[in-house]
């Protein structure tokens, strides 16, 4: 691909059914939108599949750290990260946390300096630009505020319950983390204080690149709804963060990449290396899925004849008076997914759960378009972002929202939000 990654534009590799089998061919690495009017937005990028949240025996994982990257590469992944737990350095911290959350617990083992350095050595040994990208990170871990993955940092940080998530923010802004450090919010809403109410630090908006919508086999779109809480996606975006949507396996076993139904990410990269991975994360040019080999791409256009359009993760300037947006979607599911008849849903802000603005059928491997109506005197306060959700209409969501909600079917993938601003 001209001016693109060294990755071939040929087929993705699906996870083999068991170790030792050859991976099966899956979807193309090239965007289906190359054949549309949006070709200039997608040209020069290639799809890689990644899992950026994994554990080993450096913390509380069962498998040996030396085996993890080789296993994930054998499973057909193109990029992966080790993110072992960093826990409290203060022995009294958990007791103090239990005054707030009585049932709070922590991993039995968390990393120390030698473990962080060992993870660095392992990632460097397995990193193979153009063949497999290996990244070392860590998971900042508290049982009350939440868990946060940090990638590309120069150092690591154990949490301090006395300063909370502000301590992590300050560290990320300081010299120890390095300017390249990126971070994302893990299994959002699972821990009761929800990242101190998704506390926003404006100086870190660009570097908070992700929120997990798939963790293991769980869909976090409606997390906490049955307890009277708002969707973590809404709370996070309303707080001022601008993350992309990530899927991860959060693997703690020995079968990294091989467990069925686990989350992962598809990243549209300009180069198949650590720099390309980081650039795609910063651009939010990625999607979440639980289906190995699935391809998703989408563009939102204003339809005003001025060529205003934005790819997933981007920002679209919408002229005053615009009444419709056109959402163009390319999705191809791997051959072993039971259905090729999909449902596309376009989500935006709601009160406690996302509002679905439009739905439409889509056939796997074919480019489709959904029209989104903007009612009344539209402004960015009403519809500040759009998320494309691709679902299997024949299966139910095991983590449902309100009765009758259109997203109560099983999600196959989520694209990162397109932010809408007034032109």
From TrEMBL:
<feature type="region of interest" description="Disordered">
    <location>
        <begin position="1"/>
        <end position="29"/>
    </location>
</feature>
<dbReference type="InterPro" id="IPR016195">
    <property type="entry name" value="Pol/histidinol_Pase-like"/>
</dbReference>
<feature type="domain" description="Polymerase/histidinol phosphatase N-terminal">
    <location>
        <begin position="50"/>
        <end position="112"/>
    </location>
</feature>
<protein>
    <submittedName>
        <fullName>CehA/McbA family metallohydrolase</fullName>
    </submittedName>
</protein>
<dbReference type="InterPro" id="IPR003141">
    <property type="entry name" value="Pol/His_phosphatase_N"/>
</dbReference>
